[in-house]
Amino acid sequence: MSTEVTEATQTGTEYINHHLTHWTVGEGFWSYNLDSLIVSAVLGVVGIFLFWLAARKATSGVPGKWQCFVEMCVEFVDGQVKDVFHGDRKFIAPLALTIFVWVFLMNAMDLLPLDLVSTIARFAVGEHAAHHVYFRAVPTADLNTTFGLSLTVLLLVLFFSFKAKGVGGFGHEMITAPFGASPALWLPNLAINIIELCAKPFSLAMRLFGNMYAGELVFMLIALLGATWTGLTLGSGLSMFGQILMGSIWAIFHILIIALQAFIFMVLTVVYIAMAHEHH
Length: 280
Description:
The protein has helices spanning 12-19, 34-56, 65-84, 92-108, 116-125, 143-176, 186-223, 237-276; strands at residues 24-25, 32-33. By secondary structure, the chain is an all-alpha fold. It has one domain (12-276). The chain has a two-stranded antiparallel sheet. Helix 3 crosses helix 4 (92-108) and helix 4 runs antiparallel to helix 8.
């Protein structure tokens, strides 16, 4: 969610570029976006803590409000998994719940006031470094995060494929499906299956990243409604009212996107794992 623009010396382009820059260490391939790593790790701990609270206070009698909410989430996710995956759900259901809650929490960081996190980071390092503080609060708006999640899903798909079919069965399927077992068709079959396998994590990562990046960018553009044409100063009262109004409307709509993207990522993960158990 946007707040008023505070850096009077920045242009709109500089303001957006600043908020789209990660806190990065290292160079080239071996660089790391520490802001994404820190926020995603903290939110993972927060999610575990919240569910631990519900488990610690769980009762067989009249449940509290938080216990009711957690039970609804668990039953909802388990129902979705049951509809898609027809095998043993002892591992898949907790995995799906973890993915849904974690991705939802990471997406929900987009609802924080736009300048809040960067302001906190600025005070943490000192005012003298104000123009050099970069900290993005939405891990799923970072392509590294979404690809990390999707590549983990790919590893799970491969694991369950080997578990269900064996190494030989998986290899045989890769070269004989979908066109047939003729040796002349082995290479086309292999090419199609490799493309299909690679498309799964790619589509997962790009879908989540694209939606969250676009939502974050819209919040930045709305923040600029509170600025004048000549610089990032406090705009007119009408502009500020428009900023608050548009920011609130977009935040309400964005809640649906946040939940929907977490749900889609969870469901597709379960679908891909279920497909790994199928024999062709």
